Amino acid sequence: MGAGAAALLVAGLGAGAASAAQTVTLTETGSSLLYPLFNIWVPHFEKAHPGIRVTTQSTGSGTGIAQAIKGLVQIGASDAYMSNGQLKQSPGILNIPLAISAQSINYNLPGLNGHHLVFSGPVLAGIYSGTINNWDSPAIAKLNPGVKLPNHKIIPVHRTDGSGDTFIFSQYLSFSTPDWNSKIGYGTSISWPAVQGGLGAQGNPGMVEALKGNKYSIAYVGVSFAQQIDAAKLGTAKLVNRAGKAVLPTAKTVSAAAAALGDKTPTDERISLIFAPGANSYPIINYEYAIVNKKQANKATADAVKTLLTWASNQGNAEQYLKQVHFKALPKKIRELSAKQIAQIEG
Amino acid sequence: MSKVKPFRLTMAAVALLIPLALAAIVFFLARYSWQAIGFNGLRFLWTINWNLGNLYGNTVIHHGYEVPPGANYGILAFIVGTLFSSFLAILFAVPVSVGTAMFLSEKAPARMRPWLTMLVELVAVVPSVVFGLWGIFVLVPLIANWISPAITAVFGFIPFFNMNNSTGSGYGLLAASIVLALMITPIITTTLYDALNQVPRELRESAYALGATHFEVVASTMLPTARVTLIGGIVLALGRALGETMAVLMVSGGALNYLPGTIFTPISTMAAFILSQLDSALQDPSNMAVKSLAEIALVLFVITVLVNAAARLLVRRTINVRNA
After folding, report:
1. Which pTM value belongs to this model?
2. Hey, are the CB atoms on B56 and A85 less than 8 Å from each other?
3. Which residues 4-63 of B are in CB contact (within 8 Å) with A?
4. Residue A282: φ, ψ to 5°
5. How many helices and strands in chain B, by DSSP H and E?
6. A192-B71-B40 Cα angle (round to 5)
7. Do A188 and B280 touch (CB under 8 A)?
8. Within 13 A of B84's CA, how many CA atoms are on the CB side?
9. CB contact, 8 Å: B135 with chain A?
10. Using only C-alpha atoms, what is the Rg of chain B?
């Protein structure tokens, strides 16, 4: 905290000295998952680029996208890429990946939190639609042979606020379970089936609180909250991937999934990385996006935005920053695609 | 030529600002949600299925309106959640407030009185997000571990009071109502306290002279005199409870697509739901989701006005009965 403030101060002084040439202020708003990373980035970025100030705000991915489209902010942060419908309405908007995030499935199961239970998409879909409602139900037992599961009702916890985590979690269920796909589908807020005993929570901190406070609960949590999960001694699940193997979210499995779909990433970089092929691929990972209008207010702003995005997706992808929030670096090929998109920004 | 009256004109203009602002809000809400009102029809009010639809699919034309595939907006669960939590909050808050006001005006030591009154007023200025945090960290665990089992043990034979019919997580109708009750208690207390202080001295002394005990003086002479003010305070408090957003959002458990089966079941209120859905609604390319949220705001406004009018009618009735 103190070091960060000092760095900010130094950056501020530097800006004062360097800028008879004007200081450009950029505003970032949106995803609460990207927010901590931006706060880690900004002091270092401002130090390297004294003429640019960046203010950050955690509001939610939908707000980030909407405000970037309206031109209220230069950079909207989002866990989800824009839909075709939105892009048709606002054709000049770019979706630029800044880092790779993942999501863990966590549970609070007395006596079993140290044990990595195995879940599959269809079983999670069953839990969240209420067809599987007991911990010792055959479907869960089948994935966890030899584990003594308690005879107790499951409390599935979901997000009540619009959330990129809901987006990627429901995509995992949709891509792995045809029934969920046709009835519920995916989105940042979905029409959760009425599960007797289910619970809604606000934000990732609310999810962790709900897990801590409720034995026999299960929830999906952004991987940047891994420290809080470990501190609360909650269980982390192994998930069944497309190849049928159960894997934990680790550096290796997240990178494997990113590599598996990296080549498929189109030039506009809008792609889901969920349920990637490959024996070692973790099934719930995603690009964290900057949503940016190609046409900025003036040349100075456009240059500042380009500088920031280029820095974030290259120097900003260094391990020293990303490891603090458990994100992973973008593959080289993605950084090249991003560079081409960034080049389109103009004043 | 008639005389221009600048003072009167400026005052009238200033006075008109508030009703104009109100009219502007209603007009804006109605206009903005017009398409949603047409698309949703009356089933908006009495169905419980809320679904933004597939925001990543291509929009479809449904009943002549462009919406995301699968979109369906029904808010009965939120109306029920709002009314239940607010009325329960009033039920909890009124006895506490009446007791507190009576204590402050009658039994509190004179030197302590200003301090105690200030403490009560202080509760009214606590930001609602602080109440929400307190709710999450103190009240919710308390409900889960102590209050729910206690209520179940005593009233468990009534399904509505049996925790085994819900998660027992602590989040839900009861938590929301208690937090709301805490927030509105100072409103009712201070209005009643002021009214009790204004009861004519003669009235109180005559009652004493007739041989009434202290309790009888307060209960049968002072409270009836202050009754109209008390009801006014309750109406004010109800207005606050119906529209409270943040604190409720944090402890209500965010129910979707079902009605509360017990006092421990998660709920959603209309105000809290607008806040929690707005971010995702903004991603709807057809804008129908945001317009439907505006329609919820309109319905909430109408409900608040209706509740207010009903309470006023009730007050007038009470006065008439007493005067007859």
Report:
1. 0.85
2. yes
3. 49-52, 54-59
4. -75, 135
5. 16, 2
6. 115
7. yes
8. 25
9. no
10. 24
Query: Does residue B159 contact residue B151 with C-beta atoms inside 8 Å?
Result: no
Contact A194 B254 (CB under 8 A): no
Cα(B180)–Cα(B196) distance, rounded to whole angstroms?
24
The SS3 assignment for A121 reads helix
B152: enclosing H helix or E strand: helix B148-155
Joined tokens for residue B107: 């039994």
Q: Contact A209/A118 with Cβ under 8 angstroms? A: no
Residue of B nearest to A174 (CA): B54
Q: Smallest CA–CA separation between B141 and chain A, in Å?
A: 7
Instruction: Report the gap between the CA of A74 and the closest CA in chain B (Å).
Output: 18
Distance CA A177, CA A179 (A): 5
CA distances from A311 to A239, A283, A291, A327, B198 (A): 34, 29, 16, 16, 69
Tokens describing residue B148: 């729910």
Judged by phi (left if over 0) then psi (alpha if -120 to 50, else beta), residue A327 lies in beta
Report the candidate in A66, A69, A135 with the shortest Cα–Cα distance to residue B289: A66
Query: Token pair of A319, please?
Result: 């391990």
- Residue numbers in A near B277 (CB within 8 A): 162, 189
DSSP A267-312: TT-----TT-SSTT--S-EEEEEEEEESB-SSHHHHHHHHHHHHHH
- Element spanning B8, H or E: helix B6-32
Count how many pairs of residues, chain A against chain B, have C-beta atoms within 8 Å.
131
- Token pair recorded at residue A337: 């695609």
A107 secondary structure, DSSP code: E
Other CB atoms within a 10 A radius of the CB of residue B23 amount to: 11
Beta strands B60-62 and A217-222 are unpaired
Number of Cβ atoms within 10 Å of the Cβ of A161: 25
| Helix (H), strand (E), coil (C) string for B33-93 | CHHHHHHHCCHHHHCCCCECCCCCCCCEEECCEEECCCCECCCHHHHHHHHHHHHHHHHHH
DSSP, residue by residue, B196-243: HHTS-HHHHHHHHHTT--HHHIIIIIIHHHTHHHHHHHHHHHHHHHHH
ipTM of predicted complex: 0.80
Q: How many CB atoms sit inside 10 A of residue A314's CB?
A: 14
Helix A61-70 crosses helix B270-281 at what angle (to 10 degrees)?
60
Residue A22 main-chain phi, psi, to 5 deg: -55, 150
In which residue are the tokens 């090929």 written? A333
Residue of chain B nearest A158, judged by CA positions: B254
Partner residue facing B266 (CB), from A84, A88, A199: A199
Instruction: Tell me how far apart the alpha carbons of residues B157 and A141 are, in angstroms, rounded to a whole number.
Output: 34
Per-residue pLDDT of chain B (324 residues; tens, 9 = 90+): 567 788 998 999 999 998 999 899 999 999 999 999 999 999 999 999 999 988 888 888 988 899 998 899 999 999 999 999 999 999 999 999 999 999 999 888 989 999 999 999 999 899 999 999 999 989 999 998 899 999 999 998 988 898 877 767 889 999 999 999 999 999 999 999 999 988 888 888 898 999 998 888 888 888 888 888 888 899 889 999 999 999 999 999 888 888 998 999 999 999 999 999 998 898 888 999 999 999 999 999 999 999 888 877 877 776 666 555
DSSP assignments along A210-264, one per residue:
HHHH-TTEEEEEEGGGHHHHHHTT-EE-EEE-TTS-EE---HHHHHHHHHHHHTT
